[in-house]
Inverse folding.
C-alpha cells in the first residue's frame, strides 16, 4: 500500500488546493497517469502517478483548500515504496520541537493610576506584554496591538517595542500584511452599508490571495515612483507590417508588445543598473534580461517570462509569448515559467488605455506600462504634424533604481522602439 | 560514516552537563566528553567546595560572637584536615550526582581528552581515551564547554606551584594551614579565600591593582565590603602593581609598586587570583579556523561559532565567568540545536561572592550608568533598620537599587550583608521580567524578612521609603 502525498510544486509551496480528482476509488492507474489537479498560488498543475496500482481510498476530497505539502491525499494498492510525485522537491520538514515549557508567572499589572491598563487585542483577549514594554509603548505612543511579541509564549517584551519603534517592524498593519493573505481586517460589507443578498461572493482562490498579498506588500514596502515618456511608433508599425508579411508562411505574427519586450531587454543591457533587485544583503545585478509579461487570465493575472529576451529574435519572442499566454489562460504554466523574472512589461494598449502606472512586481527593480498607440498632434520643427504616439510609463523601486537611472533606461529604450532597425545594431 | 550522535558536548562542567541533559530531554542522542571529573571545575574545584569551606569558616567565626546572643562556650577549636575532607566529600557527592544524571538521561559519558578535526555536518571529535586508545565520534552538532583555568603571570614569577604559590585548586585542598597569606586579586575568588583563611585565624593581605576592592561591583559596595573585611582583620594593598613574586625556603616575597613607591610583602603562601584563561588551546581550534576574540571563542546570539555545527558556551566563550551563565547558555544552545527559536540568551546574570559579608549584584552599577549617561533614580536601604536583621544580629550592609529615570525599568541592584546571595534572585526575576518601579512597589514582601530591605530600597528611589 502506498500513500500518495500532496506534492510540492515549487520550492516555496507550503499548501495548495486539491482542485480536482481525475481518478476515483477502484480505478487502476499506471505511472504517468494524471490523477489530480492541484491549484497553487498561481497555477493549476497536474499530478501524475509514479506507481501502478488501484486507488483504494481518496483521503482529501476535491476542492479542499489549504492542503499542506506532504499530507497523504490518496492511498494506492501495491507494495511499491515509491513515495509521492516529485517528493524530492518537498522542503525539508522543520524539526518537530515542542515549545519550550517556560512557565510564565501571571503577574497582574499593578493597579496604580499611572499604570497603562493591559490592552485588549482585537478579539477581546488580553495582550501579554511586560510592564516595561507597556510603559515604553505608552511613551512612544505605540499601540501594543501592533507589536509582535517574541518573549515567552509570545509575550511582548522591551526589545519588541524598541524594534517596532525603530520602524524595524512597521507598526502592525504592514507586519500583518506581510504574513497574511488578507492585508487587514476589513469591515464587513454589511457594516459598510451594502446589504446582504445584493451581491454574490466569489471565494478567494490561491491566485487571488497571492495577487492580493503581493500587491499590498509591494505598495506598502517598495518606495516606487513613475517616469513617463512618449514614443512615436510610425516606423515601428511599418517595420512590423513588413516583418509579419515575411513571417506569414510560418504562421508567426509579431505584436507591438513583442517589439516592446525586445527593445526593453536591449535597453536593460545598455543600462544594467536598471536590471536589478533590492535584497537585504545587497543589490542583485541580473546578468540577463528575463522579461515578465503580464497576461490577464480568467480570474486574475499571471506574468510568464521570456528568458534572456535580449538574445532572442522577434520571431522567437513572438512564438514564445503566444505559447506562454495561451498556456497561462489554461493555467498550465510551470512554476519556473512565471517565477523569477528581472523586469516586467504590462500592456493595456489594446484596451485603448492612454497611460497607466503599474505596481512593482517584487523583487524586480522596474515595471514598464505600455499605453495605446494612437495618432496625436505633435510639433516637429515648429510645425504641427500627426504621428502615432504611445505613452510608456516606468515604475521604479527607488531602493535600486534612482530617477536618473530610470530616465536613462527610457532614453535607451526610446530610439530602439522608434526605429526598430536600431535593434540590429 | 553517518553521525553517531546528534550532539557531542565537550566538557562536563555546569555548562556542558546541563546542555547535555536539556538536549537529551529534547530527544537528541547525546554524548559528553570529560577529561577529568564529571561536573567540571564548578562542583569539583570551584563554586561548591569553596562554599563548604566558607561555611566551616563562618560557623567557627560565629562562635566568637556567642555572647551577643546570650550564649557561651569555651575551648572552641577546629580540625583543618576535617574541614578540607568535608569539602572534598561534598564535591565527591555532587560529582557522583552528575554521573547519575547522565545515566538517567541516557547520555554516553566518554572519558578522555577531545580534539576537533574537520568534519561534515560538524567537526569530528577525536578522543584520546583515558582507558587508552582513541575514538573518533561524528555528530550533527558539537558543543564546546571546555571552561577556563587560572591565569598565570610567569613574567613576574606568579605561577602556581602547589607549595608556596597557590591557585584555587591548591587553596581548596592544602595539606596544612599556613599562618600568613598574600592574596593577589580582589575579585570573588581572591576575596572568598581571604575570607575563609582569615576566619581560621591566618594573617591575610589582599593586593589589588585598582584603587578599590571587588572592582566589578558598585563603588559603594566596594567601600562597605572593604570596611567589613578590615573589621574582621583582612588587610588590603590597593592601587598596587605586583612587579615580582619570588620564593625562598620560608615562603614568598611579593614586590609591589604602590603610587610609585616600592614595597614588599612576605608570607608563607601567596594565592594567585588574577583572573582566568579560556581553555582554547590543544583542541584543534586553529586548524578548524575557529574565530577567537580576546582569548575567548567568538559566538553569536545562539552560541554558534563561525564553524558549521560547532557551538561554544560558558567560560570558554567569554565573560562573565560564572556557572549559571554557562548553564543558561548551554540550555539555549541545546534548544537551538533541537530547532527551537528561543531568543532570550541575554538574560541578566547576577554575581555572588560568599565572603563575610556576602556581596551580590545584578545589572549596571551607578558608575556604569553614569558612564552611559543614563538618567537614573537610586534608592538605598541599610539592614541596620530592618527588623529581621536586628533580631538576627545581622545588621551589616545595605541594599542599593538603580532605576532608569525615564522608563522606570529596574536596571541594577547591589547588595551586601548576610544571605544577600540568596535574595538577589528577587531582583533578577524582576529585571528578567522587565519590571518597573510600580511592579516592585506593588509586591508584598513577607514580614519579617531581610528582603523587606529590597522593597524599601525600591521605594526610596522614588522618595517613598517607609522605615527611615
Amino acid at each position: 500500500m502506498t500513500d500518495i502525498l500532496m506534492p510540492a510544486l515549487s520550492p516555496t509551496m507550503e499548501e495548495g488546493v486539491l482542485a480536482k480528482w481525475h481518478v476515483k476509488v477502484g480505478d487502476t492507474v499506471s505511472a504517468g497517469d494524471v490523477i489530480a489537479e492541484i491549484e497553487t498560488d498561481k497555477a493549476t498543475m497536474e499530478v501524475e502517478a509514479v506507481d501502478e496500482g488501484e486507488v483504494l481510498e481518496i483521503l482529501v476530497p476535491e476542492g479542499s483548500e489549504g492542503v499542506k505539502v506532504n499530507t497523504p491525499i490518496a492511498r494506492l494498492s501495491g507494495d511499491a515504496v515509491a513515495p509521492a510525485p516529485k517528493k524530492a522537491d518537498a522542503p525539508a520538514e522543520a524539526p518537530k520541537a515542542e515549545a519550550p515549557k517556560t512557565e510564565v508567572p501571571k503577574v497582574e499589572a499593578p493597579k496604580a493610576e499611572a499604570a497603562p491598563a493591559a490592552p485588549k487585542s482585537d478579539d477581546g483577549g488580553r495582550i501579554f506584554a511586560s510592564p516595561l514594554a507597556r510603559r515604553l509603548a505608552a511613551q512612544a505612543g505605540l499601540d501594543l496591538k501592533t507589536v509582535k511579541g517574541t518573549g515567552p509564549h509570545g509575550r511582548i517584551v522591551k526589545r519588541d517595542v524598541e524594534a517596532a519603534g525603530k520602524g524595524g517592524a512597521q507598526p502592525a498593519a504592514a507586519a500583518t500584511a506581510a504574513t497574511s493573505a488578507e492585508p487587514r481586517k476589513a469591515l464587513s460589507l454589511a457594516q459598510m452599508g451594502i446589504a446582504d443578498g445584493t451581491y454574490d461572493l466569489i471565494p478567494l482562490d490561491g491566485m487571488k490571495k497571492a495577487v492580493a498579498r503581493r500587491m499590498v506588500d509591494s505598495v506598502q514596502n517598495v518606495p516606487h515612483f513613475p517616469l513617463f515618456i512618449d514614443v512615436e511608433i510610425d516606423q515601428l508599425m511599418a517595420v512590423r507590417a513588413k516583418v509579419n508579411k515575411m513571417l506569414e508562411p510560418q504562421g508567426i505574427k509579431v505584436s507591438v508588445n513583442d517589439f516592446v519586450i525586445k527593445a526593453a531587454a536591449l535597453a536593460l543591457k545598455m543600462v544594467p543598473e536598471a536590471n536589478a533587485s533590492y535584497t537585504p544583503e545587497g543589490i542583485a545585478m541580473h546578468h540577463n534580461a528575463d522579461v515578465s509579461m503580464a497576461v490577464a487570465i480568467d480570474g486574475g493575472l499571471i506574468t510568464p517570462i521570456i528568458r534572456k529576451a535580449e538574445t532572442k529574435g522577434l520571431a522567437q519572442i513572438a512564438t514564445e509569448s503566444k505559447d506562454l499566454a495561451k498556456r497561462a489562460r489554461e493555467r498550465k504554466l510551470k512554476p519556473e515559467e512565471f517565477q523569477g523574472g528581472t523586469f516586467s512589461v504590462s500592456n493595456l494598449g489594446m484596451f485603448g488605455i492612454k497611460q497607466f502606472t503599474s505596481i512593482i512586481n517584487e523583487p524586480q527593480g522596474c515595471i514598464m506600462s505600455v499605453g495605446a498607440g494612437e495618432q496625436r498632434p505633435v510639433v516637429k520643427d515648429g510645425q504641427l504634424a500627426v504621428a502615432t504616439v504611445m505613452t510608456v510609463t516606468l515604475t521604479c523601486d527607488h531602493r535600486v533604481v534612482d530617477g536618473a537611472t530610470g530616465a536613462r533606461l527610457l532614453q535607451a529604450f526610446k530610439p530602439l522602439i522608434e526605429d526598430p532597425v536600431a535593434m540590429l545594431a | 560514516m553517518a553521525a553517531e550522535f546528534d550532539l557531542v558536548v565537550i566538557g562536563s562542567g555546569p555548562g556542558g552537563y546541563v546542555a547535555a541533559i536539556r538536549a537529551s530531554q529534547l530527544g537528541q542522542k547525546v554524548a559528553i566528553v570529560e577529561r577529568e571529573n564529571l561536573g567540571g571545575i564548578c562542583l569539583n574545584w570551584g563554586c561548591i567546595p569553596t562554599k563548604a569551606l566558607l561555611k566551616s569558616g563562618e560557623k567557627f567565626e560565629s562562635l566568637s560572637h556567642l555572647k551577643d546572643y546570650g550564649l557561651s562556650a569555651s575551648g572552641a577549636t577546629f580540625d583543618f584536615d576535617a574541614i578540607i575532607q568535608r569539602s572534598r566529600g561534598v564535591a565527591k557527592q555532587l560529582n557522583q550526582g552528575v554521573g547519575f544524571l547522565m545515566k538517567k538521561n541516557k547520555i554516553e559519558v566518554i572519558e578522555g581528552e577531545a580534539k576537533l578535526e574537520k568534519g561534515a555536518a560538524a567537526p569530528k571529535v577525536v578522543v584520546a581515551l583515558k582507558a587508552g586508545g582513541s575514538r573518533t565520534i561524528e555528530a550533527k552538532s558539537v558543543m564546546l564547554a571546555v571552561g577556563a583555568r587560572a591565569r598565570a603571570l610567569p613574567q613576574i614569577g606568579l605561577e602556581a606551584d602547589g607549595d608556596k604559590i597557590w591557585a584555587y585548586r591548591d587553596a581548596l585542598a592544602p595539606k596544612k594551614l599556613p599562618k600568613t597569606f598574600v592574596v593577589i586579586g580582589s575579585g570573588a575568588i581572591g576575596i572568598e579565600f581571604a575570607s575563609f583563611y582569615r576566619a581560621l585565624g591566618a594573617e591575610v593581605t589582599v593586593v589589588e591593582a585598582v584603587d578599590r576592592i571587588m572592582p566589578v561591583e558598585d563603588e559603594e559596595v566596594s567601600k562597605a565590603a572593604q570596611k567589613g573585611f578590615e573589621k574582621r582583620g583582612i588587610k588590603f594593598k590597593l592601587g598596587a602593581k605586583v612587579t615580582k613574586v619570588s620564593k625562598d625556603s620560608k615562603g614568598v616575597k611579593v614586590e609591589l609598586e604602590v603610587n610609585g613607591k616600592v614595597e614588599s610583602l612576605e608570607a608563607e603562601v601567596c594565592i594567585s587570583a588574577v583572573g582566568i584563561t579560556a581553555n582554547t588551546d590543544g583542541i584543534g581550534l586553529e586548524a578548524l579556523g575557529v574565530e577567537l576574540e580576546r582569548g575567548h571563542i567568538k559566538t553569536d546570539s545562539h552560541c554558534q561559532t563561525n564553524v558549521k555545527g560547532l557551538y561554544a558556551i560558558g567560560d570558554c566563550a567569554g565573560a562573565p565567568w560564572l556557572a549559571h551563565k554557562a548553564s543558561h547558555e548551554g540550555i539555549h544552545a541545546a534548544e537551538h540545536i533541537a530547532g527551537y527559536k528561543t531568543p532570550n540568551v541575554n538574560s541578566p546574570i547576577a554575581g555572588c561572592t560568599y565572603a563575610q559579608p556576602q556581596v551580590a549584584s545584578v545589572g549596571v552599577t551607578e558608575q556604569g550608568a553614569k558612564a552611559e549617561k543614563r538618567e537614573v533614580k537610586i534608592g538605598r536601604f541599610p539592614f541596620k533598620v530592618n527588623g529581621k536583621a536586628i533580631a538576627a544580629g545581622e545588621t551589616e550592609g545595605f541594599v542599593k537599587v538603580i532605576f532608569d529615570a525615564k522608563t522606570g525599568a529596574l536596571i541594577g541592584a547591589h547588595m551586601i550583608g548576610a544571605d544577600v546571595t540568596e535574595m538577589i534572585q528577587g531582583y533578577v526575576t524582576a529585571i528578567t521580567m522587565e519590571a518597573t518601579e510600580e511592579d516592585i512597589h506593588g509586591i508584598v514582601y513577607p514580614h519579617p524578612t531581610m528582603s523587606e530591605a529590597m522593597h524599601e530600597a525600591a521605594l526610596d528611589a522614588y522618595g517613598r521609603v517607609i522605615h527611615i
About this structure: Chain A touches chain B at residues 94-97, 99-100, 105, 107, 110-112, 114-115, 130-133, 135-136, 139, 150-152, 157-159 (CB under 8 Å). Chain A is about 25% helix and 25% strand. Residues 206-221 of chain A form the longest helix (16 residues). The CA atoms of residues 8 and 321 of chain A lie 27 Å apart.
